[in-house]
Specification:
- Two copies of one chain form a homodimer.
- The first copy, chain A, is mainly alpha-helical and about 150 residues long.
- Chain A has a domain of about 90 residues: Arc Repressor Mutant, subunit A, CATH 1.10.10.
- The first copy, chain A, is built from six helices and two strands; from the N terminus they run ααααββαα.
- Chain A has a two-stranded antiparallel ribbon.
- In chain A, helix 2 crosses helix 5.
- The longest helix of chain A has 21 residues.
- The radius of gyration of chain A is 18 Å and the shape is globular.
- The N terminus of chain A is likely disordered.
- Chains A and B meet through helix 1, helix 2, helix 3, helix 5 and helix 6 of A and helix 1, helix 2, helix 3, helix 5 and helix 6 of B.
- Chain B binds a DNA duplex (30 and 30 nucleotides) through helix 4.
DNA sequence: ACGGATCATTGAAAAAGTCAACGATTGTTT
DNA sequence: AAACAATCGTTGACTTTTTCAATGATCCGT
């Protein structure tokens, strides 16, 4: 790692036409964002994905693992690993599906909710700094546009 | 990734508070977008990343591999592989850096520009359908917000 | 000219992603 | 009701991607 990398780079390549390619913009923002988010969540033993699973588990929606896989764009086997980890640490537990006994619904424990609250605060602070270049209104706009792009 | 369905799902989980988490929105849009983009680029033997490299090579900016790595958020060794592939196929070539002989600048060949033009058209069409839920104005807004978030 | 830093490159190790198969259960067809 | 195909979570194998340290060549500051 470089000694001090607090410098803000304004790469000359951003000028290229590709600087307007949505796919690249998403990839880049996602890449740098993930790095910072994972760093912020490391204090709580979480990463972006385990945090997402924990959040859904705390939501009261009682998601099944299949729903988690679909919603998070993950392979079902990846959800198994994530839930395994969270369960071993006592943050969530698997409960039998209600109308489908094959499915398992993921619910949070009290400890899970405790950790989640702390982690969420840290993550929000982190995202605020990531989007510091945007005004509050633009911040809201961005969220709205991303949501609309995803599910109309 | 998820199964092969291109169906539009409106998951009930989207209602959760996490549906407003910027990190997740970016991850999700990036995931589904990459899938479609790579599919669209496959006709030309390209993927998102090799297309990005090719685009920069065609830009006239004469980027070094280090600049490509920084701009694309990749490890330098990954750039080596990408350029190797494009070079073997005669789409780009490595030229000696002008003021720095350690660096190699990546420039496109005529064939590279030919392929790139075709691929770009296909990709733009693909991205248009991805963001079909957005109006033309919103589309422009989204690009602007992403760019501002990235480099002010 | 010397020493430390940076560039592209290599190769190895670790992590993540993909995929097919399985038992258990569900829904559907006959 | 019995047979059948489909779905859920899980496992394990396999491939791809990412990460990282080391290297020779070159640059920069002193």
């Amino acid at each position: 790692m470089g000694p001090q990398s607090t410098e803000v780079e304004t790469p000359r390549l951003a000028a290229a036409k590709i600087g307007s390619d949505v796919g690249l913009l998403l990839a880049k923002l996602h890449a740098t964002g993930s790095l910072l988010n994972n760093k912020a969540l490391a204090d709580y033993g979480l990463r972006e994905r385990s945090f997402s699973v924990l959040t859904l588990a705390c939501s009261g929606l009682e998601p099944t693992q299949r729903e988690l896989a679909d919603f998070l764009s993950l392979d079902p086997s990846q959800v198994v690993s994530l839930v395994d980890d969270l369960e071993h640490r006592g943050l969530v537990k698997r409960a039998q599906g209600k109308q489908d006994r094959r499915a398992k619904i993921i619910v949070s424990t009290a400890e899970g909710r405790r950790i989640h609250n702390k982690a969420r605060a840290g993550l929000e602070e982190c995202e605020r700094t990531q989007l510091a270049a945007l005004s509050e209104e633009e911040n809201v706009q961005l969220r709205a546009l991303l949501k609309k792009a995803l599910w109309g």
